[in-house]
Amino acid sequence: MPNVRKLSQDEVRTLENKGKGQRKLVEELYDAILGEYSEGDYGEATLEPGENRLTVRNRLKAAARRRNLAVDFRRTKEDMLRFQVVAAHPEAAEAKPVATSSAEPKTRGRKKKVV
Q1: Domain-located, residue 72
Q2: Residue 74, domain member (yes or no)
Q3: I need a labelling partner for 38 at 20 to 30 A (CA). Which of 5, 96, 106, 114 fits?
């Protein structure tokens, strides 16, 4: 027979409120970093050992998008990222146009000769 007990209120609160995940915490950290910048500001990010340059760039871009801004990166070497916060590009926010269907369906390969 199993050993059964009723959970206390503190244990129930702990189960129900699991807190924020790692992704959400990183997202909030980058949002806070870019929160100090406004359009036209420049910044530099020095990478710590083990940090991936592309990952940091993508996280900064995502944080800027959440604020309706964009980030332009300058060329740098090694463990430094230099960037400028700019206005979001309006064409990037718009949806790409959908191709209209033609009368003939597309086929693969070469067209057959008509004799």
Answers
A1: yes
A2: yes
A3: 96
- Residue 104, φ and ψ in degrees, nearest 5: -100, 135
Q: What is the CA radius of gyration of the chain?
A: 25
State the total domains in the chain.
1
Element (H, E) at 27: helix 22-35
- Determine, yes or no, domain membership for 85: yes
DSSP string for residues in 40-59: T-EEEEEPPTT--HHHHHHH
Residue of 56, 4, 12 whose CA lies nearest to 30: 56
- pLDDT, tens digit, for every residue of 9-52? 888 888 887 778 889 989 999 999 999 999 999 999 999 999 99
Encoded amino acid at 12, one letter: V
The encoded tokens of residue 24 equal: 């959400």
pTM comes to 0.64
Range of the domain at 67: 41-90
